[in-house]
Specification:
Elements lengths: L1 H23 L16 H11 L9 H16 L3 E11 L8 E14 L8 E7 L13 H15 L8 E6 L7 H9 L6 E9 L7 E5 L4 H10 L7 H7 L8 H6 L4 E6 L18 H20 L10 E5 L5 E5 H24 L5 H28 L8 H5 L2 H25 L3 H18 L8 H17 L6 H22 L5 H19 L6 H33 L6 H21 L4 H21 L8 E3 L2 E5 L4 E6 L6 H7 L7 E5 L3 E9 L9 E7 L2 E7 L4 E10 L4 E5 L2 E2 L10 E6 L6 E6 L4 E12 L15 E3 L5 E12 L10
Parallel strand pairs: 2-20, 3-4, 3-5, 5-7, 10-23, 11-24
Antiparallel strand pairs: 1-2, 2-4, 6-7, 8-9, 11-12, 12-14, 13-14, 15-16, 16-21, 17-20, 17-22, 18-19, 18-21, 22-24
Amino acid sequence: MKTVRLLGVWVCLLLGLAIANLALRTPPPLPANAPADQFSATRAMADVRAIGGKPHPIGSAEIVRVRDHLMSRIAGLGLEVFVRPGEGVREAAKWSPRSMAVGAVQNIVATLPGTDREAPAVLVMSHYDTVHNSPGAADDSAGVAAALEIARALKAGPQPARDVIFLFTDGEEPGLLGAEAFFGRDPLREHVGVVINMEARGDAGRAAMFQTGPDSGDLIRLYAGAAHQPTANSLAAAVYQRMPNDTDFTHALRVGLPGLNFAFIDDQLAYHTPLATPDHLNQGSLQNLGDQALPVVRALAMGQALPAKSPDLIYSDVLALGLVAYPIEIGWAILGLAGVLIVFTGYRALRGKAVTFVEILRGIAGFLLLAAGAVLALHLAGRLIGIGDQQRYYAVLGQFNALLPGAGILLIGVCLTILILQARGVRGLWGRVWVSLIALAAGGLCSLVGGFDQIGLGLGVAVVVLAWLSLGRGVGVFGAWLGALLVVLALAVTAQVLLPGASVMLAWPLLAASLAAALVMAVGGARDRRVAWLLTLVIALVAVAVVAQLSAWGAWTFAGVGLTEPAVLAVFAILAAPALLPLAFDFAAYRWAPIFAGVAVAAGVGLLAYAGLGDPGPTRPRLAEASHLADLSTGTAWRVSPQPRLDPWSTVVLSDNDAKPVRQAYPPLFREPVWMAPTNVLPVERPVLTIDRAGDRLLVRAVPTAGAEVLTLRLRPSVDLDQPRLNGRPIALPTKAGEWSSLSYHAPDPNGVTLSFTARAAGKIEVAVVEIRDGWPRGASAIPAKPPGLMGMGYSDKTIVLDRGALSWPAFVDSDTQP
């Protein structure tokens, strides 16, 4: 039994993690000669390579080539195809209340006709534009290629019962402009009955169905029955609805359309960066996306009717083997069963004097101590290595393969350490004093990087309070076990009330651990050695299953939000603890248990330190950004970089003519300091800017030069302006006296952009027009090639042209009201 005490918890942890790793693996891509009705990533990669070879933002010359390729491919598939031009709008947002984006979009619509052309259609959506400086092989060339492969596979089979519309939107990156134009004003929208959207936030990992619309119970049932190796859970959908993130699917939801949103999110260093090349894309991710989306689209297209609105379900995949979905009432039944099992365990334990009420209360405090300590450890680690700091985001992201295991190993070590303290007890007053000092020091260290941290300090204080409540004399296994089960039960009930979809991650591990506890108590006292071994085996199997499922959930969640707050991973360790607790208590009795736990803590700290300090290297390069700024209003030119620190390449580029880069603001273009150095003034074309007044209307007009990808107008009036219009169309562009407002027009109309406002009171206005053009200006000194360890970001290697104007006017007097 000593061997079991030493190895049991570690074996279960390692087996669970191994199973989770297998579940997270992507399938091999099917070859190009796969059956015609199946999805083949190898076939789809031909389109990824054709589309995702170079950056192609809206308004660029490269996106014209991509559009031509799509039109040719769609025509070759025999689908009806049209380009549907429009104007998309991104309204001002809370985080930028006086800034909006507009774009002249070129949406592409292809239709596979169904037998009933009047039936509500299935819309398969992806976007074919990219951000500047990223070829976007994953975001969203993979989605576009998947849509083309789905169209080919459907065309190879029987005619669908309803139309399948393939919408390739333009201008998604600057603000979902193509989707806004389609769902806001395109009459074809009325023909759509359900939407399948395909996205990417990285270029690896399993594709997940992470978002649905309200009342999608029947749609989830269809997805569960049709998708191959589905990956989804209702917690992700519930949380995503409350996050500020958006995709094209957002506009479908706003007009009340049901649907499913798919994406893969691993290896985010290739998200919106030059690293997002076809060769870097994980073809297994593309295969997994198609394996889930194609069967769902086929089931929707062939069905006699689309899924009706029905109450939402609680659902999750089980290690990507299948999807379990059930009504909210069943969720209550699961929690009810878990509650009955916990009450039974507590009753038998109290009656048999295996535990006392005081021990259960100390077990509750001890489990809360474990939770607070685990969260504090990862929160502190994240603060110290710069997680959450946008200036270091990509530097840390470049070491994600060390970051995730480092966080996981640190969690294991911290949790085992706290459980050992609970099981063995802390001798004397000074033992708890030392724990308190360590906790307060950890909470204080959270403020060492990034300024004062109330969260870290609060966690440190919480650990101190809980340590004094729970530590001291050792707690028995049933006191700790019942305390953990009661805490998780309370959390699960709260989730079921407030956010039912979130309860899945609490209810399943809770039910498994409750069953194990009840079984142990039901046969407790049996002296048969075989029964004892059987109970140990059951507990071990439950622990392995819980660790595997929670690790799969946790890895996917950490990929999504771990770079913002790594402590999110602690949630999954906390939920796994009740299933592992009896094995952990056995391990705690082993003489050298603290050494093993300490080694785990040290290993986790070492990996996290490597993630924070290590050099990403050529395969995971750092960011660089350098552009040419021509300020035509002052007759000056600059080399600029918004990056917080200059790398050697950017330093050389900015130090043109031996100029020394300095950090300074340059309003209204750069309101925060950026690196700037003067450079040679080179001839660049000047956009036309006119400011005039007609009656009580203020008119600001800009005509872009040929090749301008973005035209931005920034305005600062001395008085509030009313009734804004863009080219005569009412828009929501708030203005405030003395503050800058901004409108960015992507793929601007060559005939010009006109903003107009009502301005009856006397006032004046400052206006800046900014153009973004691809490449360095003609005549620029030679720009050295970027070394393998760097990648250009943002507007790097582009020309920014700035011009300014101003106008003052008297108060407007209406002649019709004069005597």
